[in-house]
């Protein structure tokens, strides 16, 4: 319209009005300028993400953020941008609760993704997300307590994209038996994660004829030395020590175990699948030693995620839960879009109600990666039904918000971490 007005000169007012009216009737609406387009594309959905930027799991925080940022970029490119707001749990339940309160009360997020440590996730669920009615999806909390949390009974706000340690414990026991170990000592972090995995491993290992000669707890807060705990662990002359802790703890006590010649054979878990451990202990001292962790099946969806990650950041680090972080954010966003398409107001409760809908096995399969997320967004907007099978695998949430995904058997080899195999496990 402004271009027409600039060309209309030396006309009387009446003539100008006539011409303006004609122009308005025949000219198509002007394209929105860049600022208007950006305003139109501004995200209306907020997703809070709790990451361990500090504390015993701090090695994972920055890596997890890259996976989260990638999910945000893929959603924006698909035409459904969301705002991601981060909080630091400090690998501490009290700090995690405070970070979650800010996300929910101040930032007013529609969903909370996290935390990493089971103790933090449980504290956040009991104190913040369940009372406030905000769905929470943990990408790394494997404690069996999440399945039976009393506070979530009849509420259905607590979910996770990783399997319970009831599964990992069985596979880990199988690895110990496979290696010929008959006497195992456990040094474990004394929190829901450590206790749960210790109990499930011990039950499965003893059922297979093995002996757990010692199970020694240590505090979740990092200590400067673990010599006293190590002395207790080796009293029963175990063949191997199961390092069931976080990397921040294990870098200290593994080095002490080797330097003091207490024990030099180890088994590992997801919390001790760590490049920092290699750097602290030395690759030669870990060569060929095995561990387990929640894993991802070799699927086209994983390949798409991996290719996109490598294109942006370089090599995908061999850390656990990278795919789970990504999937958790994508699922929450797709649930919000499904609520919007249904005509419902997009509230936290509405997002919760759609989490199973977008991972419905009866829907059309949607994959991870930029192309997969775009296809999922387009399918939902077209009124379709989708089954998001992500980089970590299928996320068919059961009545408790749990999923069943593969368990990886991995090893330290050549100064890095390699996958040996993945195992599908179910518990009746």
CATH architecture call of the largest domain = 3-Layer(aba) Sandwich
- Give the full name of the CATH homologous superfamily of the largest domain: Response regulator
Physical arrangement of strands within the biggest beta sheet: 2-1-3-4-5
By DSSP, the count of extended strands is: 15
Query: Which CATH class of the largest domain?
Result: Alpha Beta
User: How much helical structure, as a percent, in the residues?
Assistant: 40-55%
CATH topology of the largest domain, which one?
A: Rossmann fold
Structural class comes to alpha/beta
Query: How many separate helices?
Result: 15
Integer average pLDDT: 92
The major beta sheet can be summarized as: 5 strands, parallel
Task: Report on the architecture of this protein.
This protein has 428 residues and is of the alpha/beta class. It folds into two domains: 46-162 and 299-313 and 320-394, Rossmann fold (3-Layer(aba) Sandwich); 165-295 and 407-423, 3-Layer(aba) Sandwich (Rossmann fold), CATH 3.40.50.2300. It contains 15 helices and 15 strands. A five-stranded parallel β-sheet has the order 2-1-3-4-5, sandwiched between helices. Strands 7-6-8-9 form a four-stranded parallel β-sheet, with helices on both faces. Helix 4 (61-77) packs across helix 15 (369-381), helix 13 crosses helix 14 and helix 13 (322-341) runs parallel beside helix 15 (369-381). The chain is globular and about 65 Å long.
Secondary-structure map:
Elements: H1 2-7, H2 13-26, H3 34-40, E1 46-51, H4 61-77, E2 83-88, H5 93-106, E3 111-113, H6 118-132, E4 136-138, E5 158-160, H7 165-178, E6 183-189, H8 192-207, E7 211-218, H9 227-233, E8 240-244, H10 247-259, E9 266-268, H11 275-281, E10 290-294, H12 300-313, H13 322-341, H14 348-354, E11 364-366, H15 369-381, E12 386-390, E13 393-394, E14 407-413, E15 416-423
Parallel strand pairs: 1-2, 1-3, 3-4, 4-5, 6-7, 6-8, 8-9, 11-12
Antiparallel strand pairs: 10-14, 12-13, 14-15
Helix pairs in contact: 4-13, 4-15, 5-6, 7-8, 10-11, 12-15, 13-14, 13-15
